């Protein structure tokens, strides 16, 4: 059964512009700028800094009452000037917040005027995305930013023989590093975008650059138009995005895949890589697959028939739901804060009989959890209120995670990441039993 909320208490999603930052920060030399009131930038900087344990700069045009009445053009122009002078970026990613959207600023037009007037703008690519939080969640903000970057920068030239690997939903820096390792080991020529592996998980250094090092190089983004194929990893149930644009505009064939969590979904990624490259899976991953199977058999006696609730971002929730069913677990609640009918349809298929919830909040999840004998919660830390109240162990996965360390290093993808998940769930249950929570 599918439910949809009309009002929200403690939403199971975050603000739309926040998703755009996860993409902009994965591009080399890119600085995010919010066009709106200052609090949006302050809140999202802190939110991301607590999760990644990294400093996160997000500029703001700091609209006040005057801007709200007369329009924010002057603030945006000044903000662009300040960002260029202060940060010397290669790219500025502008995301609107609710106020700028409500007053109806024509951001692309203001940017064109700025580019026409300002010499400063000549070497900087400026991209703007419309991200009103009252319209959609952080997940949609992520995808519109990814598409806007490709739309603005990709240019047709000669074929490069590479494969575009678009990271279609929010994963950890460790997951991105895993994807890189996998493609390198497979001997693949590829373009990975966005790449937050270093920008949100930098090494300790005396030198603290204003814009973190790393990210997808601009030449690579330009070259996505010339690749032989695109895989969107974590784009399974999403609206057409960057990959579809490359297919329609530049005839680069596109396949959207689920996040490779669990056996079936990781096998699906491997099968696509085999097909695209004509090369078999490297031996070390065959062995990892075998170890995952062994781990699943080992943990089966703890996990089989356990009633679970899984919530968070759409693609991650679907991947986790799939591995739960592979383990013989019984997902009872499969929930997301996003409005995504394809999610609901696929969740109902993956976990028949479960309560599928979209556009949901934690008050609704709590109500459902209390009536369904849930034994294990899996999702971001915001479910801890339910965990405490209902005395249910919680395995923290995904974004945000503010009350534990290690979110940047949490590997959930591939056979190895799936093994971490299986062991994490088994151990959370065992710890819960020891504490008397189940
Ligand atoms: S809901 Fe809108 S105004 Fe509020 S913090 Fe999010 S983006 Fe800013």
Topology:
Elements: E1 2-4, H1 16-24, E2 30-35, H2 38-52, E3 59-60, H3 65-70, H4 73-87, E4 91-96, H5 98-103, H6 107-117, E5 125-129, H7 138-153, E6 163-167, H8 173-185, E7 190-193, H9 218-223, E8 229-233, H10 242-250, E9 254-257, H11 263-277, H12 283-303, E10 307-311, H13 314-326, E11 330-335, H14 341-350, E12 355-358, H15 362-370, E13 376-379, H16 384-390, E14 394-396, H17 414-435
Parallel strand pairs: 1-12, 2-3, 2-4, 4-5, 6-7, 6-8, 8-9, 10-11, 10-13, 11-12, 13-14
Bound molecules: iron/sulfur cluster.
Relative helix content? 40-55%
Determine the N-to-C terminus distance. 26 Å
Strand order of the largest sheet: 1-12-11-10-13-14
Give the CATH class of the largest domain.
Answer: Alpha Beta
Written account of the structure:
The protein is of the alpha/beta class and 438 residues long. It folds into 3 domains: 11-153, Nitrogenase molybdenum iron protein domain (Rossmann fold, 3-Layer(aba) Sandwich), CATH 3.40.50.1980; 163-277, Nitrogenase molybdenum iron protein domain (Rossmann fold, 3-Layer(aba) Sandwich), CATH 3.40.50; 284-435, Rossmann fold. It has helices at residues 16-24, 38-52, 65-70, 73-87, 98-103, 107-117, 138-153, 173-185, 218-223, 242-250, 263-277, 283-303, 314-326, 341-350, 362-370, 384-390, 414-435, and strands at residues 2-4, 30-35, 59-60, 91-96, 125-129, 163-167, 190-193, 229-233, 254-257, 307-311, 330-335, 355-358, 376-379, 394-396. The strands form 3 sheets. The chain has a 6-stranded parallel β-sheet, sandwiched between helices. A 4-stranded parallel β-sheet has the order 3-2-4-5, sandwiched between helices. Helix 1 (16-24) crosses helix 7, helix 4 (73-87) packs across helix 6 (107-117) and helix 7 (138-153) runs parallel beside helix 10 (242-250). It is globular. The two termini are 26 Å apart. Bound molecules: iron/sulfur cluster. Iron/sulfur cluster (SF4) binds next to helix 2.
